[in-house]
Specification:
Blueprint: E1 3-10, E2 13-20, E3 23-27, E4 29-33, H1 44-49, E5 55-58, H2 59-64, H3 70-74, H4 77-81, E6 87-90, H5 93-99, E7 101-105, E8 110-113, E9 120-123, H6 125-135, E10 139-141, H7 153-173, E11 180-184, H8 190-201, E12 207-210, H9 219-229, E13 239-241, H10 247-255, E14 260-263, H11 265-271, E15 274-277, E16 280-283, H12 303-307, H13 310-318, H14 322-348, H15 352-363
Parallel strand pairs: 4-5, 4-14, 5-6, 6-10, 10-11, 11-12, 12-13, 13-14
Antiparallel strand pairs: 1-2, 2-3, 7-8, 8-9, 15-16
The structure holds zinc ion.
């Protein structure tokens, strides 16, 4: 149920076509985050107009709410949210450790208190996979443990070994032909990451992700790890860098052979007035835009830039009108899709270095 065809290569960077149950995704791709089964403030028509090919939803959040198998009764997540294109579901490993209270880890899973109502929940790899199967995901992720940046090497090693065991349980729990990706752990240690990768590949997953990054480490440390391990992920399978990020970090990772990305930055920043443009970042709350009747980005053909000015959006934002968040989200989501298109084209035309230089000039100081 997954077919991945590599198209163009420019040194380590590559473009490809990912064929999934609900459609085709061109890689390198950026998945807009719709944690609870919606990209905050955007209707599906907005996402389609932004040319989003795939979105990411979260099994952890959708397991806690809605309760009572509502999504299953609806006929799966695609029907529930009326989204006909691919959905990747994150397993919830990261969220269990970052959002839950009083987590207790054992070899079989994690016991934690629901942040919604305090109920005790025991999350296991099997339960995570069952949830993702019931959601009807196009790509499922194994259940894993994430360590913080401050974890010691011993802690990271132990956690990585537990994640390997859970990877095996996740694989066994998938009694369908639905695609399942393995997640390489190992914190900031290249040798541990190599062990994790070598063990994971024995299970022949449908794709491989780098997890446990974007957990507070400086970006140069993260970029070093991606540079070391990125091109070692199996060549013929999709490679996914989880939770990253900024345009500059995405393009550096593409250079190392990464195909898939997700991050809350475009939508979260939009709701806070932080916009991406071809000339760098723009903060709509800055007073200098009070009487600026030009669009956010003159070169951008998105719905927001075609119809509204910086001054008007700034006014809406100051009035706390929810339209401000929607219009700015549309622009940022479009910007990221356009950015990935430029990246794919530059790989095809062998001009990735020039594009990197351009992004460095506009974004390195952000
Ligand atoms: Zn725009």
């Amino acid at each position: 149920m997954i077919k991945f065809t590599l198209k163009n290569k420019s040194r380590k960077a590559r473009t490809g076509i990912l064929e999934l149950k609900h459609g085709i995704v061109e890689t390198p791709t950026f998945m807009t985050v719709g944690t609870y089964g919606s990209v905050k403030s955007l209707a599906n028509s907005d996402l389609l107009e932004c040319e989003a090919q795939i979105i990411l939803c979260n099994a952890y959040h959708l397991m806690l709410r809605p309760e009572h198998d509502v999504v299953l009764k609806a006929g799966g997540l695609h029907k529930f949210m009326n989204w006909s294109k691919p959905i990747l579901t994150d397993s919830g490993g990261y969220q269990v450790f970052s959002l839950s209270r009083q987590t207790r880890v054992s070899r079989n899973g994690v016991e934690f208190k629901s942040p919604l109502n305090g109920n005790k929940i025991f999350m296991t790899p099997e339960k995570s996979i069952e949830t993702q199967i019931n959601l009807g995901s196009d790509i499922m992720m194994i259940f894993d443990e994430c360590t913080p940046y401050t974890a010691t090497r011993d802690e990271v090693k132990k956690s990585m070994e537990l994640s390997l065991y859970w990877a095996e349980l996740s694989k066994k729990a998938n009694n369908t032909t639905m695609p399942l990706f393995g997640i390489v752990q190992g914190g900031m240690h290249n040798d541990l990451r190599e062990i994790s990768l070598n063990e994971l590949t024995k299970h022949n997953f449908d794709g491989y992700a780098l997890g446990g990054l974007s957990v507070g480490e400086p970006s140069d440390i993260r970029n070093d790890i991606v540079e070391h391990i990125g091109c070692k992920l199996p060549e013929g399978k999709p490679r996914y860098l989880m939770g990253v990020g900024k345009p500059i970090d995405i393009i550096y990772a593409v250079r190392e052979g990464i195909d898939m990305f997700d991050c809350v930055i475009p939508t979260r920043n939009a709701r806070n007035g932080q916009l991406f443009t071809n000339l760098g970042n723009l903060n709509i709350r800055n007073k200098k835009y009070e009487s600026d009747f030009t669009p956010i980005d003159k070169t951008c053909p998105c719905f927001t830039c075609k119809n509204y000015s910086r001054a008007y959006i700034r006014h809406l934002d100051r009035c706390n009108d929810i339209l401000a968040g929607r219009l700015m989200s549309i622009h940022n989501v479009y910007f990221y899709q356009e950015f990935m298109r430029k990246i794919r084209l530059s790989i095809q035309e062998n001009t990735l270095d020039a594009l990197i230089e351009n992004i460095e000039q506009n974004y390195i100081h952000e």
